[in-house]
Amino acid sequence: MQLMVIGLGQCGSHIADEFARMNKRARLRRRLQVLTGTYAVNTDLADLSSLSSIKADYHHRILIGGRKTAGHGVGKMNDLGAQIAREDADKIIDAIRGTPQFHESDAFLLIAGAAGGTGSGALPVISQIIKERYLDRPLYNLIVLPFEHEEHTEERTVYNTATCLKSCSTVADAIFLVDNQRYVDKDASSGSNLDWINQQTVEPFYNILCAGEEKRARHLGTRVLDAGDVRQTLSGWTIIGHGSTKLPSLRLAFWKSSSFREKSATTDRGIEAIDKAISELSFECNPADAARALYLIAAPTKEMSLSLIKEVGEHMKAIAPDAVIREGDYPRMRSSIDISVILSELRDVEKVKRYYAEATGLASRLEQRRQRVDAKLETIDDAGKDVPSLIETGSPNYPSEDQSPPDDALAT
Ligand SMILES: Nc1nc2c(ncn2[C@@H]2O[C@H](COP(=O)(O)OP(=O)(O)OP(=O)(O)O)[C@@H](O)[C@H]2O)c(=O)[nH]1
Ligand SMILES: [Mg+2]
Questions:
Q1: What is the Å distance from ligand 1's center to 46 Cα?
Q2: Pocket of ligand 1 (CB under 6 A)
Q3: Cα(331)–Cα(253) distance, rounded to whole angstroms?
């Protein structure tokens, strides 16, 4: 499957950059192309310069709202981010239209952090514009939710997140949810390291995108997972994860044991990998709420027994009993069993509901807060109304040049 990836704002651009790195890895190690183009869009010039894998020309790193923000971002005002995106959407459309492999794109993936200004505002707007132009291709969003401490320190964080989620849910075919806080809970030492979180976010896509692009017979499974399976799986609120278990190195690919103990150990490792994938999901939810699911087993051919596939399938069915499950196997020469999982069309997402509930009263509270600040400023102005000012307001007392008094009048 080949994606066209567009990152918006700082968070979106950095994750898009990580996708570009993943594509380089696929080209180098597997001679496969999984992205047709990668773009970063931001109102912040310095941030665009900090990327490393997205091409450095202005077609791929696109500055929007330069006149309004002077290249310094929108400072968390996502309504301004949305307005700028609407005004400068042509720049993005022109860039993606010029992509040489544009027509090979199976889908669009647009990425942003929900809590900021630029990405949060631009994501729904640009998604809608692209969707209206390219009706035949699905459009997915990947939305990053803020750390808990960000929600506690600034109410605007919750407001931006809720408005971004709500707007995107009416446009995108599916939304991958990624929760920054989940990575802190998983590994406190690296959880706040954004580069590490970005790698963890992108990694589960690697095998899923590569599997359908394989042409070499030795990497074609008995059940190839292709773009059609992914398209049929992705719908509405979606989460993704992957898990891996190491094989004893000797068993890599050349040695096949006929021992019943070995066979059962392999299936156990498969179950362990899928359990890890479920516990490593990008967002905490109840897998039983998924109406669609997908899993991909990547393992050395010799390990890919029917019983492994069957056991993992049954385990998945137990985890997501109401889901239509699609699956694939991907023979790889690695000393591990890797399983990627997507759970989609989630019917209940507690955290999204919480953002909506908290933001409902917030819009009026933020407005009241602004009015209170204005009122306080007015009382200061009132208190100082009889103090002479050195600056005249209203009708200017300074004579304009052509009204200036004659020089001799000034001399007296
Ligand atoms: N996972 C991850 N989260 C990030 C990254 N950069 C920022 N964030 C999160 O994204 C949110 C802030 O959004 P940004 O993308 O920085 O904001 P922006 O879209 O650039 O908007 P403005 O700076 O307000 O113009 C916060 O919740 C951050 O924790 C990143 O590289 N990875
Ligand atoms: Mg920014």
A1: 14
A2: 9-11, 14, 43-44, 73-76, 113, 115-120, 144, 146-147, 150, 180, 194, 197-198
A3: 10
Do 355 and 271 lie in a common domain? yes
Above 70 in pLDDT, residue 247? yes
The protein residue with its alpha carbon nearest to ligand 1, atom 10, reads 113
| Helix orientation angle between 9-30 and 194-202, rounded to the nearest 10 degrees | 50
Give the model confidence (pLDDT) of 111-139 as tens digits: 999 999 999 999 999 999 999 999 999 99
Measured from the Cα of 43, ligand 1's closest atom is 25
φ, ψ of residue 292 in degrees (nearest 5): -140, 145
Is 156 in the same domain as 252? no
Least confident residue range of 31-45, 128-142, 375-389: 375-389
pLDDT, tens digit, 9 for 90 and up, residues 64-91:
998 888 888 888 899 999 999 999 999 9
Q: Of 342, 359, 376, which residue is a domain's last? A: 359
167 & 244 share domain: no
The answer to the question of residue 399 being in a domain is no
Residue nearest to atom 27 of ligand 1 (CA): 146
In a domain, 216, yes or no: no
The number of the ligand 1 atom at minimal distance from the alpha carbon of 42 is 20
- Give the C-alpha separation, 215 to 211, whole Å: 9
Q: How many domains does the chain have?
A: 2
Distance between CA atoms of 101 and 104, rounded to whole angstroms? 5
Is residue 178 located within the same domain as residue 52?
yes
* Number of other residues whose CB lies within 10 A of the CB of residue 62: 21
Domain with residue 16: its CATH number is: 3.40.50.1440
Range of the domain at 159: 1-202
Model confidence pLDDT, tens digit, residues 161-192 = 999 999 999 999 999 999 999 988 777 666 56
pLDDT at 7: 98
Say if residues 388 and 397 touch (Cβ distance below 8 Å). no
* Total-model pTM: 0.89
